[in-house]
Specification:
about 100 residues, alpha/beta, 2 helices, 3 strands
Length: about 100
Amino acid sequence: MKLEVFYPTGSPVEASSLPHAPRLADLKGKTIGEVSNGMWEDSRTFPLIRKLLKQRFPDIRFVPYTDMPAGVHEIDIDQIGEMVAAKGCHAVIGGNSA
């Protein structure tokens, strides 16, 4: 018996690496954007995240995920940085994957 296995990732490719943005010292007075791929309970998790962060940083502001494009195909990876910067975000919470 012969078994053939398909390796879907193809040949290993060395990825180029961009430097990470520096971490924020804290979230006091910052505006945080929320980006969701729309795949898992964003209507429950983002409000909880907001509530918990507001307890620690009362003057924090949010651009809610409902004010941003959602979904795997609607979020253009090449434009997301410009989009959140235009909304005045200092940081982004991306999430809610299944």
